[in-house]
Protein 1
Amino acid sequence: MPVNPPKVPTLSVVPESKPHPSQGPQTLQPAGWPMPKGYANGMAADGRIVMTGGVIGWDPAGHLPEGFVPQARQALANIAAIIAEGGARPEHLVRLTWYVVDMDEYLAHLKALGRIYREIFGVHYPAMALVQVVRLVEKAARVEIEATAVVPR
C-alpha cells in the first residue's frame, strides 16, 4: 500500500506597509489558514537584530506596580524603551514571548491588554508565544516578556 506524504500548506507572505523584506518585517501567513488576531504566525526580516532579556513591569526607580495589567503596560513600555536604544521601533518587532504566572489572569484581561498593546506598539503584531510558568525570578512579578526586533539595513 503506497504511503501518501502529508499535505503541506503553501506559504504566503503578507506584506505590512513595506513590500520588500529589506525595508521591514513581513508577516508569514500560510495560504488558507485563518488570520490570527493580535499576533502573527511568523515573521521574516533582514537587518540588525535587537533583543531584550526578560523584561518585567518595574519602572526606572525599581517599583513594580500591583496587578497584571499595570505590570504588562510597564513591561511593554520598557521594551519600547530598550529597543529604541538599539535603533528599533515597534514596527521592527518580529517576536514577543510572554511568560505569565497565571494563564487565566492573562485571558481575563485580553481587552485591556489589547488596548495597552496598541497604545504602545500600534497595530503591528509580531509572532508571539504565551507560556505559563510556576513563578518568575522577581516574586511579585505577574508577567515577563522577551522581545526581538530586526532593524532594516
Protein 2
Amino acid sequence: MSKFATFAALHVPGDPVILYNIWDTGSAIAVAAAGAKALATGSHPVGDASGFGDAHQVPLDYVFANARRIMKAVDLPLSVDFEGAYSVDPAEGAANVAALKATGAVGCNLEDQVVGGEGIHPLELQVRRIAAIRKAVGDDFFINARTDLLLKHKDTDDALIDEAIVRGKAFADAGASGFFVPRIADPRHIERVVRDVPLPLNAIAFPGAPPKAEWAAAGVARISHGPFPHKALMATLTEMAKAAIG
C-alpha cells in the first residue's frame, strides 16, 4: 500500500488518527518515537520555530525543504499545513500544491480564510480552488479542506454549524478528501457534521477540549493539535532555562 493510501485509511470515524503536530526534523523524530502512525506539520509552529511567522510568511522554498528533511528522517506519511496554498488564484494555488506533492508529502490543509486579511473566501471561489488543486495533484493526494467559520465567530450556534455543513458538502463535491473544522467541540455539532458531510471530520484538540473518547464516539476521524505542542514545549524550555540560569 502506498503512503497516500495508508494515510487516507487512517481516517476512521470513531477511531480517529492522532496527529501531534510537528515543525521540524527533531520534533518529527520525537513524535514518531512516541508511536505516531503519521505526521503533520502546523503552519504556526513552523513559522514560530523558523522565525518567519505564520500566515504565508514562511517562504515556499523553506516549506518544501522542511518537508523533505522531515521525510528523509522519518519514514511516515507526512501532511503539510499549507495554509491558503500561497495564492488566492486557483491555478497558481494548484501549482503550489503540486510542487508540495512533488516533495513526497501525502496531503495538505487548505484554509478558506483570507490569509493575512479579513473574513473567509466566497464559497464559489473556494470550490474552484479545491477543484483546481484536485486536478493538479490527482486522486491520491489528501486535501484536508478547512473552514474557518467557527474561528471567525465568538459563539458557535446551530446556524453557524449549518453554514459549515454547506461548505463541507461543497468541498466534498469539489474533490476534497477531508473536512477540517477548527474550534468545533460540542459532540452534538460534531455528530451533525459527520452525518451531513460525506468527508472524514478533523477536529483540533485544545486546552479544555472534550476528551478524545467523547469526540471519537461522536464520529471524529482525525484529531490534530495545531500550535499547542510547540507552545507547551517552549514554555517548558523557558522554565528549564530559568532553573538552570537562576
Protein 3
Amino acid sequence: MSDRDAAFEAYFAARSDAMRGTAYLLCGDWHRAEDLVQLTFTKIYLAWRRIQRHESMDSYTRQTLVRTFLSERRRGWFRHESVGSPATDRPAPPIGHADDRVVLLEALAKVPPRQRAVLVLRYWEDASVEQTAALLECSTGTVKSQASRGLATLRGLLEEEKIR
C-alpha cells in the first residue's frame, strides 16, 4: 500500500461517519447519505495527490459533499420518492426528546436544498457565515438571506406539525 493510500485510508476512517451525518441532514435518507459520502470520498481520493494542505481537508471534504448534493439535486439525477416511513438504520444521539428529533428531521427534509445546505453548514457544522459562503461559492449576504429564509421555512413547518 502506498503512502498516498495509507493517508487517504486514515482520513476516511477518521471522518466518514461525521460526513455521513452531515449528508443525512442534507438529504434526509441514510442510504442516499451513504451514496453522497461515497461519491465525495471518491472525488477526494482522485484529487488526493493535488491537495497541498491536508490539514484543511475537513473544509474541502465538506465543500465537496455539499456541492455534490446540490449538483445532483439541480440535475434531477436523484429523485426522492417516499414509499413509507423512513428507515432508521442508525440510532439517534441522546439529545432532547426522540419525537422532537424525528419531527425536526422531517421538517428539515422539506426545506429547499440550498437553504437546507446553509442551515446544516451554519448550525450543524458550526461554520461561520464567511466559511459557509466560501463553501457554497456565494456572498455572505446570500448566506444570511438563505439562513433567514431557511429558518423561517423550518419554523413554519414545525408550527404546522404542532397544529396537527
Protein 4
Amino acid sequence: MAIATGTAAAISAAMALAGTAAGVVGAARQAQAQREQAQYQAKLAQRSAAIAEQNAQAADEAAAAERREGAENAAKKRQEAARLIGMQRAQAGASGARVDEGAALDRVLDTAERGELDALAARQKGEDAAHNQELRAWGYRNQAQGAELTARALKEKGETDYMGSIRTTLLNGAARTGRNFYSLGVQGPRI
C-alpha cells in the first residue's frame, strides 16, 4: 500500500519537527545546567573578590598602624636621648665642671646625635613596614579585580552559551527539516 506524497511529506516534516523539538528541549536543559554552573562559579569569584578587598583593607589598616608605631618609637628614642643628656649634664654640673664646653659638651652632642639617629632609624623601620603592608594591599586589590573580571566573564559566558546552544539546535533542526523536504521533492517519497 502506497502512501501519498503529501502524506509522506507531512509525516517526514512532523518527525523532523519532533526531533528538533526534542533536541531543543535537551539542549535547553543542558544549557540551563551550564548556565547555573557558570553563575555558581561567578558567585564564587565575586566572593573571592570581596575577601581580597577585605584583606586589602586590613593591610591598609596595618600599614597605618606600622607608620604610627614607627613615629611613636622615634618619639621614645628622642625622649630617651633627652633623658640621657639631662643625666649627663646633671653629673657634669654636680662635679663642678662646665656643661657647655669641653668634653662635657662633646659627650652631650654625641648623645644627641646618637639619639636622633636611633629615632630616625625607628621611624624608617615603621615606614618600611608600612610600605610592605601597602604592597600587600595592592596585591590583594589586584586579586579582587581579577576575581571581579572572572565573575563578569563567567556570567557572560553562561548567558552566551545558553542562548548559543538553543540557537544552534534550532538551526540544525531547521536545516534537517529543509533537507528532508528537499530530498522528498527531488527523490519523491521512499517507503
